[in-house]
Amino acid sequence: MDTIANTIVVALGGNALAPAGESATVYDQFRHTRQSLEAVVKLAAEGWRIAIVHGNGPQVGDALKRNELAREIVEPLPLGVLVAGTAGWIGYMVQQSLQNALQRLAIDRQVLTVITQTVVSRNDPRLHDPTKPIGSVLSEDAAADLRSRGVVVGKDGSGRLRRWAPSPTPIDIVEAEAVRQLVNEGKIVVAAGGGGPPVYRDPTTGWEGVDAVVDKDRTAAVLGNRLGADTLLILTDVQAVYRNWGTDHASPIPHMTVPEASDLLETGELGRGSMAPKLEAAVTFVQQGGRRSVIADLTQGVAALNGETGTTILGDH
Length: 317
What we know:
Carbamate kinase; four-stranded mixed sheet; eight-stranded mixed sheet; 11 helices; 17 strands; alpha/beta
């Protein structure tokens, strides 16, 4: 599909809405949501066609914990259904917060949330190798308790203990064509929330859910390519992609070609669960037809698109 100028997919991290070490009440998350949408509001004012993908790592992990605590009272929900549930209520927060911001500026753009299903392979080996941090930060005692129950626990990109979930590779999005039509009409669409509930096609019954959490940046890349977007903007909690991350010699990388980004990923210095999936998604988006990917701090989205900060990934030209 040919790329469409001024069409962008913006990926917002679930941690941006519920930062580690802060209260995660829904009221705090509404506040963080409003703060996270500054770049989207500016893009909307400039007339960009926009789709928004948000993460759900902290939220879906907390939902899983609620299920476990209440399992003697109400029937627990499977992880795939919890992903769909968080896509609904986080989408509601993003949608309402953006509607209010646009209304204050007299910008006439409709905003809506679409629950989309992300296609994965039933035989994906990632389903048996949990790598996705979810839920709130764990104490050593809480981590030990989960491990005693067979739950995989590991450290996230910041060295904090978190529950880990399987994270299969996204292949396609079932409702991509409907999202494309809405975006081309000028509507701002919140889609693939939390990476989208993962599904596979059963030859007898049709679409069936999978108990896993798809990485939202990888799904955003797939959605961007299906929409024909020319730009993927990944907003996170660091300024850019860094070389020698975690050392005294760390330095931001303002620009990379796809081969350069691929070489950096092969070194393994970015880790499995932090920046690496973001850069992998950025590379995939450009390789599959996107013009550029930009990784930047949540508050610096527009500046990053202008090349003033962040990391921009282009083809090998």
